[in-house]
TrEMBL record:
Ranges for domain MaoC-like: 15-122
The protein's name in its UniProt record: MaoC family dehydratase
Species annotation: Kocuria carniphila
Entry-linked Pfam families: MaoC_dehydratas (PF01575)
InterPro entries to which the protein is assigned, alphabetical: HotDog_dom_sf, MaoC-like_dom, NodN-like
Family per similarity comment: Belongs to the enoyl-CoA hydratase/isomerase family.
PANTHER family the UniProt entry points to: MAOC-LIKE DEHYDRATASE DOMAIN-CONTAINING PROTEIN
Lineage: Bacteria, Bacillati, Actinomycetota, Actinomycetes, Micrococcales
Domain of life: Bacteria
Length: 153
């Protein structure tokens, strides 16, 4: 894992173009997939039935794309923080793509580059980050997304 970047509000504007490095690897477990299926009421067999999924199109059960995407939040927290703000907001996502399935048992990690920082009303900053969730040993990433954040002093 790359060392976490922690900056003050006044330093955020200088981060455009900064590569934050890589998060820790995280293994995707069947228990995690099943819990996500319960939370989202998406029990499609390619996720929750390991026996049937073994003979399916991916040769194994796979994580929900949105489960993999949701890991962006804890991995982001491993890589970046702003120390002296009152409010931190996950503002949204742009250009999200699920480019490769993640098989149960695979490990994923995220790399992030901050691409833009701009001011917003209310003494805030809008930060745009390009995030890629990689699958260990695979050429294609699992998820590519533009992650939007706001920080208010």
């Amino acid at each position: 894992m790359t060392a976490k970047t922690v900056v003050s509000f006044d330093e955020v504007a200088d981060l455009a173009g900064k590569d934050l490095g890589f998060s820790e690897w995280r293994e995707i477990t069947q228990e995690q997939v099943n819990l996500f299926a319960d939370a989202t009421d998406d029990h499609q067999w390619i996720h929750t039935d390991p026996e049937k999924a073994a003979s399916g199109p991916f040769g194994a059960p796979i994580a929900h794309g949105f489960l993999t995407l949701s890991l962006l939040i804890p991995m982001w927290g491993e890589l970046f923080d702003v120390s002296d703000v009152k409010t931190k907001v996950n503002y949204g996502l742009d250009k999200v793509r699920f480019t490769s399935p993640v098989k149960v048992g695979a490990r994923v990690r995220m790399t992030v580059t901050i691409t833009e920082v701009s001011e917003v009303k209310g003494n805030g900053l809008h930060l745009v980050a390009d995030a890629t969730i990689e699958i260990e040993g695979e050429e294609r990433p699992a998820v590519v997304a533009r992650f939007l954040n706001r920080f208010y002093k």
